[in-house]
Design brief:
- With 131 residues, the protein is of the alpha+beta class.
- The protein has one domain.
- 47% of the residues lie in helices and 30% in strands.
- The chain has a 4-stranded antiparallel sheet, with helices on one face.
- A hairpin with a 2-residue loop joins β2 and β3.
- The chain is rod-shaped, with a radius of gyration of 27 Å.
């Protein structure tokens, strides 16, 4: 009896199934990595916007500390590059909250909310300003 050389159809089908499963895994990892990359980009945009707003508040406090509350308390600002939940434009929404309990020490909170790539997202920056 002679042995045949080559691959049977069953062996080819099994090999193709293994390759298909491996490719599906690779595609899933790639898609997840793209989501994480986008979420990190959004968080960086929010962090930069909050830091810039805080620097504006700090600059105002250096020249006129009493004007900080009047100028920034409960103020809102848009954050380009982020989708605000419920809107079609690419603008996140930032809100400044200042606790005026201590006249010499202001508790400043800057909250940015947006519709993230996976869910509603938020970034909060909190700091103290003193006279």
């Amino acid at each position: 009896m002679r042995h045949r050389r080559g691959v049977s159809l069953l062996e080819v089908m099994i090999a193709l199934a293994v390759i298909a499963i491996a490719l599906l895994g690779i595609v899933a990892v790639y898609l997840k990595t793209a989501d994480v990359k986008e979420a990190n980009r959004e968080a960086q945009i929010a962090k930069t916007a909050a830091t810039r707003r805080f620097e504006q508040i700090r600059t105002t406090a250096m020249t006129n500390f009493n004007a900080v509350l009047a100028t920034y308390q409960s103020s809102t600002f848009s954050v380009p590059g982020l989708n605000h939940a419920g809107t079609a434009d690419k603008q996140g929404l930032g809100t400044v909250m200042i606790d005026p309990t201590n006249a010499n020490l202001l508790d400043v909170r800057i909250l940015i909310v947006w519709q993230g790539v996976r869910a509603d997202s938020r970034y909060e920056l909190r700091s103290l300003l003193s006279r």
